[in-house]
Amino acid sequence: MTTPEELNAILDRIVKNQQTETDMTVLRRSLSGSGQIVSQQGKYAVNLGQGQEIHIGDRTYYGADAEIIREIVRSLLEELKATGQFAAFKEQNQQSVDELMQQVRSLIHDDIQRLHGTMPLWGVAHWVPLGDLFVDVNILEELSSSRKSELDDLWQDFTTGMQRYSGDRSLARIGLGSERQRVSGLEVLAKNTNLMIVGKPGSGKTTYLQRVVTECNAGHLQTHRIPALIKLREFVDDGRKFAYSLECYFEQCWQLSNAEIDLIFHQGRALVLLDGLDEVTGEDGKNITKQIKQFARDYPQVQVILTCRTQSQESQFERFDYVEVADFNEGQVRSFSEHWFKAVTKDDSAGLARVQKFLNELLLETNKPIRDLAITPILLSLTCVVFHYTGNFYSQHSKLYEEGLELLLEQWENSREIERDEIYRDLSPERKLELLSYLAVKKFEQPQYVLFEQSEIEGYIAEFLEIGLKHKAIATRRKLSQSRTTKYRLL
Hints:
- By secondary structure, the chain is of the alpha/beta class.
- The protein has four domains: 4-83, no CATH class; 110-142 and 180-325, 3-Layer(aba) Sandwich (Rossmann fold); 330-418, no CATH class; 420-491, no CATH class.
- The chain is built from 21 helices and eleven strands.
- It has helices at residues 4-15, 21-31, 63-83, 85-116, 130-133, 151-163, 185-189, 205-217, 232-241, 246-254, 258-266, 282-298, 330-345, 348-362, 368-373, 377-390, 397-416, 422-425, 429-444, 454-465, 467-490, and strands at residues 54-56, 59-61, 118-119, 128-129, 138-140, 182-184, 194-199, 226-231, 270-275, 303-309, 320-325.
- The protein has a seven-stranded mixed β-sheet with strand order 6-5-11-7-10-9-8. Strands 1-2 form a two-stranded antiparallel ribbon. A two-stranded antiparallel sheet has the order 3-4.
- The N and C termini lie far apart (84 Å).
């Protein structure tokens, strides 16, 4: 195949009107597959003649130069179509990529279901099938952070919220104005564009991607594509082996050659889901971000879906539509709660009875503060688990969090029979809560206060428990004891 350097030399000669017949032969051969020029490394796909800028390697052609190149390419494509070479080669490529798709889908099918077909559930010691709990998320196609509100709008929102309760929105939020248009997460996916999906922590971004990849894997959507879900925080270690190249990563995962990967990506036969951009920071984060942007430029036919916490992305992604995961509305709260109690009780009739009692309590006016809180999957799960074990709601958010933490610290650990190191074994629930408070304070003092590295959290725990001082004192006593023993023996 033609390398980017060779292509750039040819295009430079075309711009200068110095092209040779050999140059034209090389271009014909390169274009005979699908109207694209493809580099040897499989990284620089260019849909020449389609109206966009022309990228070859690190080189970009603009304006008049790009138009000269496109005109030459258009004439070559017409020539190929007239002689039938283009159609024949395209049909051959189509058969080849279909065979590759079936091969890869068969290879990865069971792994996708095993890795992404279940999810953890608060209050249950085992993971549950994704389909037993999933509630389709709604997407806002206009980001809340991009909407500007004037003083009159804010006052109108406030007075409206004070005067009435909206069944579809449990808390009329100041600054949101009229309800923004919601669409189904699957409906947004069907638009076939690259998406940057932002949302607050616990809003359901990861679960949404799990649902998409398993539905595609089962042949219920995007059947013409190979699905792949990568959790970017886990990709850091694997990515270092390939300089964070997604192409190299998929070559290994799908057990394909460079040419086969190249063919699949240029035909747009992959659905690449990348979860948690905000979870990769520092140099790793910068390198991964760079590679994602390059991948999206090089393979515009591939659909890329990327998730990130709201307002966490530091750089803009071109050719991506920015959308936001919406808070649960009343219907979704009901549906999620029903799924949750059925999964916990493992009895549909008992689960329905329990969820009805839960919803009746939740909709009481005295429980409006909790209702306003339980609008994301993670906080609604917390509300469900507290009610399941205590039968109570708490009007104060802090009390709900406290009760949830105590359940996590006591019931979960006991039910899972976790073995603890000696230094943690005698910690009371109260002492554990103090430790968590200490960790929260220490972390919020840092510029990067969201994510923990293991070494960092271990350091804070050691500080709180004075592990370092205790170990040092023990080591000193042992050393002195050994010294006295040695001296006695010498005497």
